[in-house]
Design a protein that fits this description.
Helix content: 55-70%
Oligomer: single chain
Distance between the termini: 29 Å
Radius of gyration: 17 Å
Length: 218
C-alpha cells in the first residue's frame, strides 16, 4: 500500500488527510475510555512495523508487504489495530523514509478503511460475539481485507496514469500473503489462548475469542 511519492495529485492528498483526521478523531473518543488499549496500540505499531520491514518487495506502482493485519486485529483488538496501523506508518516514515510522510494519510486509509469493513461486517462475530474462529474463517477475513486494500490502492491510483495491468500485478501478488497470513494468525491466537490469564496473556486481547482445535480448523 506504499504508493510511490509524487503519483497522487494534491486534491486527493488533501481529501485523504481530512478523511484520516475525521476517522481517527471519531475513534479517539472511544479509545480515551479504554486505557487498557493504549499499550496495545504500541504493540500493534511495533508488530506491524516489524512485519512490514521484514518482508517488502517493490511490485508495480506500490509494494508487497507482510502486514499481519488479522493477527494484530485478533490478538490486540480493533482499536489497537486501527491506531497501530496509523502510528506504525508514521514512525516508519519518520525513521526510514521521511518522503513517505506526504502519503501517510493515503497509506493509513488504505489499511484502516478495509479494517472497518471487516470489523463491522464479520469480525465482530469472533471478537465480540463468541463465534468459533477457524483457519478457514481467518482465510476468508484475510481475503476480504486485502481485497479492500487493493480497491483502496486502485482508487488512489485513478488519474495517476498508472495502467490497470500494473495495479493488477500488484494486487495479484497479495494472493501469497492471503494464504500465508492466516496460518500466522491462527498460530498466534492459539499460543496466546494457551497463556490466557498469565502475564503474557494480559498484554493481549484474546479473552473473548474462541479458537477451534487444529483438527476442527477448516
Amino acid at each position: 500500500m506504499h504508493i510511490e511519492t509524487g503519483l497522487i495529485a494534491q486534491p486527493k492528498l488533501i481529501l485523504a488527510g481530512a478523511t484520516a483526521a475525521v476517522v481517527l478523531a471519531y475513534y479517539l473518543r472511544h479509545l480515551i475510555r479504554r486505557p487498557q488499549d493504549w499499550p496495545r496500540i504500541l504493540l500493534a505499531a511495533l508488530f506491524f512495523s516489524v512485519f512490514m520491514e521484514a518482508i517488502h518487495f517493490h511490485v508495480g506502482p506500490s509494494e508487497l508487504h507482510f502486514v499481519g493485519a488479522m493477527a494484530i486485529y485478533f490478538t490486540l483488538g480493533f482499536l489497537p489495530a486501527l491506531f497501530g496501523f496509523a502510528l506504525g506508518l508514521l514512525l516508519q516514515a519518520l525513521i526510514f523514509e521521511p518522503a513517505d510522510l506526504a502519503h501517510w494519510a493515503v497509506n493509513s486509509l488504505s489499511l484502516i478503511l478495509p479494517l472497518l469493513l471487516v470489523h463491522y461486517t464479520i469480525g465482530r462475530r469472533y471478537r465480540e460475539q463468541g463465534e468459533t474462529l477457524t483457519w478457514g474463517r481467518i482465510l476468508r477475513l484475510d481475503a476480504m481485507y486485502y481485497s479492500g486494500v487493493a480497491l483502496m490502492v486502485g482508487f488512489w491510483l485513478v488519474g495517476t496514469g498508472t495502467g490497470i495491468s500494473a495495479w493488477a500485478l500488484w494486487a495479484s501478488s497479495y494472493a501469497l500473503i492471503v494464504l500465508i497470513e492466516p496460518l500466522v494468525t491462527y498460530a498466534a491466537v492459539r499460543l496466546l489462548k494457551a497463556h490466557e490469564g498469565k502475564r503474557l496473556g494480559r498484554l493481549f486481547a484474546v479473552d473473548n475469542l474462541r479458537i477451534a482445535s487444529a483438527r476442527q480448523s477448516s
